[in-house]
Design a protein that fits this description.
Elements: H1 4-8, H2 14-29, H3 40-53, H4 56-59, E1 72-78, E2 81-90, E3 95-103, H5 112-120, H6 127-141, H7 150-168, H8 173-176, E4 179-182, H9 186-191, E5 196-200, H10 223-233, E6 237-241, H11 244-256, E7 262-265, H12 268-273, H13 275-280, E8 285-288, H14 301-305, H15 317-325
């Protein structure tokens, strides 16, 4: 799923979109479209169904029960598309309550993904069980998912289970769900003792003279200053990332310096879009979601990519503190 503003780098005019759709339908089907209201048959259908579509049964149809609210999410890139998993797990029984698998991949038959979700429901939440269930599903049903292997679904689900493991270490599940990892799992990366904290320039105040510099004077005007203090307290070096290119250069420098791992801060949308870039760096990393509206929320990711995002975001300090305080 995407939106026009993200793909076009601007929000299109509504009337212009309507005219474009009208013209292309006319050209393709060889017809002429004329403005008009509902037909009498459509009005009768509306009167018949408006009660249902205004009812609680319809409005709350996709809401989950309270015991399923604490779900975990993951993103995995396969060659055939992106897989997203939302999963609710009964921690007491160690079983999957529900799984929702979405993405931009294709599958045949159409209900293949729904059948896989049903196969996972109630399964024991551990990797051997999940692997067996997925392998059996692909062997029995022979679904066609171009560019996506059974191991890709396993990886996406493993990322969800990793977040559950974080909560077992004492971290609230709601915070654990805002953590993504690359080139390793959370526990192993922390055991490697990350010595670098990468922070986004957009979390510095737009009026700050250090916004477009890699350092920070810790003036207390934004969340970055406190993050620098936390890094220093934990024997880490903090670096303000200025652009996507600067991020890639920094990761390459850390790799050449034989750094074991790092902790970074970025929004989930940036992580999903650049997951392959993070993975290609070869460095294990823990990526923490940031607070407030991001360039993706505002349709300004093109400028942010170049280091020209003018709004203020924020480092999730509670999440950062939780990660730095984890005792293994």
């Amino acid at each position: 799923m995407t939106c026009l503003a993200r793909e076009l780098r601007t929000t299109p005019d509504l009337d212009g979109m309507k005219e474009s759709l009208k013209k292309n339908f006319e050209d393709f089907f060889g017809i002429t479209l004329k403005p008009g209201g509902l037909t009498e048959a459509e009005k009768e259908m509306l009167l018949e169904r408006i009660g249902y579509f205004g009812s609680e049964d319809w409005i709350n149809k996709v809401k989950h029960p309270k015991h399923e609210k604490a779900a975990v999410h993951s993103v995995h890139r396969a060659s055939g598309g992106t897989i997203r998993v939302a999963m609710a797990i009964d921690a007491g029984q160690g079983r999957i309550q529900s799984a929702l698998i979405t993405g931009d991949f294709f599958s045949f038959p159409q209900r293949a993904v729904l059948d896989l979700e049903a196969r996972l429901k109630g399964a024991i939440a551990d990797i051997p069980t999940i692997r067996k269930a997925i392998d059996e599903f692909f062997a029995e049903g022979l679904p066609q998912v171009p560019g996506v292997q059974s191991s890709d679904f396993e990886t996406a689900i493993r990322k969800c289970l990793d977040k559950v493991d974080m909560s077992k270490a004492g971290m609230p599940l709601g915070l654990a769900d805002r953590i993504n990892t690359v080139n390793g799992n959370f526990t192993d990366i922390l055991r490697n003792k990350p010595r670098h904290l990468l922070l986004p320039y957009c979390a510095k105040s737009p009026e700050c003279g250090w916004r477009y510099k890699t350092g920070c004077i810790e003036c207390g005007e934004c969340t970055v200053g406190e993050a620098y203090g936390l890094a220093r307290k934990n024997g880490m070096e903090a670096v303000t990332i200025q652009s996507f290119e600067h991020l890639m250069e920094t990761l390459e420098t850390l790799r050449q310096e034989q750094a074991t791992s790092y902790i970074g801060c970025c929004c989930e949308a940036f992580y999903a879009k650049h997951l392959e870039d993070f993975e290609r760096s070869g460095l294990p990393g823990i990526l923490l979601d940031i607070d407030s509206e991001t360039c993706y929320d505002l349709g300004k990711e093109s400028g942010a990519y170049q280091g020209k995002f003018e709004n203020l975001t924020g480092v999730n300090l509670d999440l950062l503190k939780e990660v730095l305080d984890v005792k293994l």
